[in-house]
Design brief:
The structure holds two protein chains of two kinds. Chain A is an alpha/beta fold. Chain A has ten helices and 15 strands. Helix content of chain A is 21%, strand content 21%. In chain A, the strands form four sheets. Chain A has a six-stranded antiparallel sheet, with helices on both faces. In chain A, strand 11, helix 5 (271-282) and strand 12 form a beta-alpha-beta unit. Chain B is mainly alpha-helical. Helices cover 47% and strands 7% of the residues of chain B. Chain B has twelve helices and seven strands. In chain B, the strands form three sheets. Chain B has a three-stranded antiparallel sheet with strand order 2-1-7. A two-stranded antiparallel sheet of chain B has the order 3-4. In chain B, a hairpin with a 5-residue loop joins strand 5 and strand 6. In chain B, helix 2 (107-127) packs antiparallel against helix 3, helix 2 (107-127) packs parallel to helix 4 and helix 3 (138-165) runs antiparallel to helix 4 (167-179). The chains are: A alpha/beta, B mainly alpha. At the A-B interface, loops of A face strand 2, helix 6 and helix 10 of B.
């Protein structure tokens, strides 16, 4: 049994006692008396099969609790409403795997810590599976995204959860546990990968997700090194089994409300969440929800840029794409920050549009150049980036994830 | 278990492999859409509604939320997964394999059961078609439309059974289901309750809380049927029906909440004062409850019924939660208490349980309604208001069964015609009451805004905020 740190509870103030959840639960964790429907904490495995069929939303509560001290069903039977969240020791809220907590805090360090998700973002499911109880996915595909002569081997890997409930949102990460042990005989550390497919999967109705993985062959100092997890993933064949944990991440999420715009800035595999968000919006084009998409995407050259082909096929009126290539023979080096400066009119307009949300994702260090570019754009228009940035963060409009 | 959405008619019954059936249903489909456009929600064809659509019938896939224009809603045929080796679980065929085809001797009975159930589905859409014009909020409007499209889908479910298992008769019944009209003098719907008007939102909430709950119990009894396709169809419909009950229960609860807030704020329980402040006084709510409860109670039929007995013995319609009951599931010798009127006294007598199955189902329903009433009563209790809602006696205001010819007070006292005439205005909504409720009905269609007579819900749909744009107008 995994240690309970968030307890699944049913809100007796909303529940209509229709029995749907009890009927649905595959592990018989839900029971009832003449007053209330309740969840046995020691039986519930957080599979969430009960959530979609609940007609009221009463089922959808996960309360942080002190480890080892769940509410008993006898206590739950006496409730007329859920206990006040204040009664719950929040300090022990979410026990993410230690590795995940560390990686997440490193990823958001570039913006001075995590920023809350946009107000209209879908509520994410997190920590459904951890290293003690990972979910097994099957590789449904592994395609090279970069050209044959490209310096980097970047791959699009599709994982299928075989119908098991593993809800994901654009911008969330999943953890991969490479098999085997390190030189000291300890299990490998978990690695986080951003999901590259929208919430309904690579194909709506199929229970899968895609990752954008670069085969790591050198470290940050350009010394040769063989990345354990990336090489493991890049070498996977169709049908191979992979141990997955997660989902993780409840901040770097996209807005859901009509009329919301996205400004996406990425390099290399930082394109994964951007692809997910773009694809989510592309599937909803017919709904004419409004809002603009603007993309700044940096790579060495077109054949080094993941998803270059599919991006070129998107209608211009749907997404405003700005590529920056730094190694095209005979052309000056271009970085995303140069493109941001070039497009200062639109960038300034978007910074000032309350409905525009800005996302940065890529290698650690990229945020500095982007930050400078935004500062220049603001200066050009009589604005002050250093005063604006805290407001953007406050309004959940500026999200950074670098690794 | 995935639903095939590539077909004209989404389905998980492999319709494509039965060309004759597929053609027949594709022929019925335009007639259905004509009916929807004529009798479905009024003036809504271009509105985009945040609807729930099933994309598969397993728990993960059947609640997919997105904006849909109602005429483009993908109505389809979804059956719950087949249970391997399922048997008939009650009656004289108990233990035999469940039927995948209609047994010849029960053909006409099953057809009647399916047509009667099927007829209620479009009827309620017709009854509710004007309510969109007076919605108290976008949230409520969205819920109304969700209920409507699902009632439409339930009609599809029944028509599928008629087409798939009843040949030409079934196809003709399918057409007739689109021809009858709620409240029409020449071609009414089959059951009385479904020819009443649903003129305002209070009636709508009462209807979904009380009358859709009759639907729940009828469907639950049919979900036990030995005729497997009917059982599987009803099982999936039940999942949708739960949402309708929620709409009703929470709707009334929010009305009570709002009234109690005003009562507490102004320290008054004077109906006239409360009405002048634009909220519905609690005694009026009680009258509406009395009305809907008694009219719906008649839907269960007479307390003693040989029809109900043969439905059970033949394995066609079970009891509520049949397989969870710990008896012989044949009821040859079992008894069940029903009420009887002796002079002006009401006594209980024991009758053969087989003949009292209507009453038993009614009792299960009463218990379920009472649970909802108890939850409503927590609202005034919490605000320190002494009023409590009560269910009238089972014999109050009935037209069918042993109480059909009598007059009873809500407390269950047999009274004379004269006393009834004199007093019934205190127990049932009067013309004035209805006119007052009607006078409150104005349209509120701005995200996050609610009519004065109803409180906002405790939470939005699918984790969306309460001020989410649940309906978008173009």
């Amino acid at each position: 049994m995994t240690e309970i740190v968030k307890q699944h509870l049913i809100d007796p103030g909303i529940c209509i006692r229709c029995n749907t959840c009890e009927e649905t639960c595959p592990v018989k964790a839900i029971t009832h008396d003449s007053r209330n429907y309740v969840v046995k904490a020691e039986v519930c495995n957080d599979c969430r099969a009960c959530v979609p069929p609940c007609p009221t939303g009463a089922i959808d509560n996960w309360f942080p609790i002190a480890p080892g001290k769940p509410w008993s069903i006898e206590e739950q039977f006496t409730w007329d409403e859920l206990p006040a969240p204040a009664a719950v020791p929040v300090a022990t809220a979410i026990a993410e795997p230690e590795d995940v907590a560390r990686l997440t805090s490193e990823a958001t360090a570039g913006q001075g810590g995590p920023v809350a998700a946009p107000w209209s973002a879908e509520k994410p499911a997190v920590n459904l599976y951890n290293e003690k109880g990972p979910i097994t996915a099957t590789v449904a595909g592994n395609f090279r995204l970069t050209g044959d002569k490209a310096s980097a081997d970047i791959r699009h890997i599709v994982l299928d959860f075989g119908g098991v409930h593993f809800p994901l949102l654009e911008g969330q990460n999943i953890g991969i546990v490479p098999p085997g042990t390190d030189a000291q005989g300890r299990p490998h550390h978990v690695r986080l990968y951003s999901v590259a497919s929208p919430r309904d999967g690579e194909r709506p109705g199929y229970h899968n997700c895609a990752l954008t993985v670069k085969r790591v062959t050198e470290d940050h100092e350009k010394k040769p090194v063989k990345g354990v997890c990336s090489n493991y993933l890049c070498d996977l064949k169709k049908g191979d089994k992979v141990q997955v944990i997660g989902p993780f991440g409840s901040n770097f999420l996209m807005p859901n409300h009509a009329g919301s715009s996205l400004m996406m800035i990425c390099t290399g595999t930082g394109s994964a969440p951007m692809r997910a968000m773009t694809e989510r919006r592309r599937r909803r084009i017919d709904l004419k929800e409004g809002g603009e998409l603007m993309l700044f995407f940096g790579a060495r050259a077109p054949d080094e840029l993941p998803y270059f082909g599919p991006l070129m096929k998107l209608p211009k009126e749907f997404i405003d794409i700005n590529f920056a290539f730094s190694r095209v023979p005979g052309q000056p080096k271009q970085y995303v920050q140069d493109r941001i400066r070039e497009r200062h009119e639109d960038v300034w307009r978007q910074i000032n549009d309350e409905n525009c949300y800005i996302y940065l994702c890529g290698l650690k260090g990229m945020e500095k150049g982007v930050d400078e570019a935004f500062r220049d754009v603001c200066r050009q228009h009589g604005g002050d980036w250093d005063a604006l940035l805290p407001q953007l963060r406050e309004k959940s409009r500026y999200h950074v994830e670098t690794y | 278990m995935s639903i095939d959405y590539s077909q004209k008619i989404p389905n998980n019954v492999d319709l494509a492999s039965n060309k004759t059936l597929q053609r027949a249903l594709e022929h019925w489909q335009p007639a259905y859409l004509d009916w929807w456009n004529e009798m479905g929600p009024d003036k809504t064809t271009t509105a985009e509604v945040y609807l729930r659509t099933a994309i598969s019938v397993d728990p993960k896939g059947w609640a997919h939320f997105d904006y849909v224009k109602m005429p483009e809603y993908r109505w389809g045929i979804f059956l719950a997964p087949q249970e391997a080796g399922r048997t008939v679980n009650f009656g004289e065929h108990k233990g035999q394999p469940a039927w995948q085809e209609v047994p010849g001797e029960y053909r006409s009975t099953l057809r009647r059961i399916i047509v009667t159930q099927g007829d209620t589905e479009p009827a309620s859409v017709e009854q509710q078609r004007h309510l969109g014009m007076t919605c108290p909020s976008l949230y409520d409007m969205r819920n109304l439309f969700q209920v409507n499209v699902e009632e439409g889908r339930h009609l599809w479910a029944m028509v599928y059974l008629l087409h798939a298992h009843f040949g030409r008769d079934g196809r003709e019944e399918g057409e007739a289901l689109l021809e009858r009209r709620s409240g029409d003098a020449d071609n009414p719907r089959i059951l009385t309750a479904f020819n009443e008007k649903t003129p305002d939102w209070l009636s709508f909430f009462m209807f979904t809380f009380i009358t859709d709950r009759d639907g729940k119990f009828q469907l639950a009894a049919l979900a036990e049927s030995g005729f497997d396709p009917l059982a599987r169809t009803c099982k999936f419909m039940l999942t949708e029906e739960a949402h309708h009950l929620f709409v009703g229960e929470s709707g009334i609860s929010r009305i009570i909440q709002r009234t109690c807030e005003v009562m507490a704020q102004h320290k008054t329980d004077d109906p006239a004062k409360l009405r002048s402040m634009g909220v519905i006084d609690l005694p009026t709510l009680q009258k509406y409850l009395n009305f809907h409860y008694s009219v719906t109670s008649d839907l269960y039929g007479a307390e003693i019924s040989s029809n109900a007995a043969s439905f059970y013995t033949n394995g066609l319609k079970g009891r509520y939660e049949e397989t969870k009951l710990g008896d012989d599931h044949r009821l040859d010798t079992a008894e069940y208490p029903v009420m009887e009127v002796v002079g002006d006294r009401i006594v209980t007598k024991h009758v053969p349980a087989l003949t009292a199955l209507n009453e038993r189902l009614r009792d299960d329903w009463v218990k379920d309604v009472q649970g909802g009433i108890d939850r409503w009563n927590k609202v005034p209790e919490k605000l320190g208001i002494p009023f409590r809602f009560t269910l009238p006696h089972k014999g109050f205001h009935r037209k069918i069964g042993i109480f059909g010819e009598l007059h009873l007070s809500p407390e269950g006292k047999v009274i004379s015609e004269a006393e009834w005439t004199h007093k019934h205005r205190d127990w049932l909504p009067t013309e004035e009451d209805r006119a007052f409720v009607q006078s409150l009905m104005g349209r509120v269609a701005e995200p996050g805004k609610f009519a004065n007579w109803i409180a906002p819900p405790a939470r939005g749909i699918n984790n969306q905020p309460v001020d989410f744009e649940y309906v978008r107008f173009n």
